[in-house]
C-alpha cells in the first residue's frame, strides 16, 4: 500500500511539472537580409541579458533608447533626386555634386553640413556646400544640401557609396545652387 501511495504522489508531482514547464513558442523565420539577421541576433542577446545579466544593459541604455526612438519614427521617403539643371546662360553644369539631405531652413542646412564634414572629413573637408530650393508641391519648400564639385559623375558616385555604407542617404546631381554661408 505504501508503494502505491508513493507511486501516486510521484506521478502527481511529475504531471504537475510537465504541465507547468514552458514550451518554446514557435517563431516565424527571419528574413534573409543582413539587417534582419543582425536584428534577430541582437534581439536574442538582449533577451538573454534582460533575463540573466540586466546590469550589462545599463551601459548601453542610451543606445537602446535611441534605437527604440528611431524604430518608432515613421519612415520618410527619400527626397526626389535633382534633375540636371541648366545654368543661367542655358548650358548644363559640367560639375558634379552629391545631394546629401534636405532641410526646411538654412540654419539646419548649415549645422547638417558641419556635422557631415565632421563625419566624413576626408570626403567633404575640402568640398564646398551649396543649397538649392526645391518646391515639392503639397510637401512644401525644401533646401537641398549639395556638396562638390566632383570632376566626374563616377567620382560623385564613389562619394555616395561611402556615405551610404554608413547608413546615410546620397544621390549624384549637378553642382548648382547658391553657396551655403556658415
TrEMBL record:
Gene3D superfamilies: Sporulation related repeat (3.30.70.1070). It comes from the Bacteria. InterPro entries: SPOR-like_sf. This is SPOR domain-containing protein. It comes from Hyphobacterium lacteum.
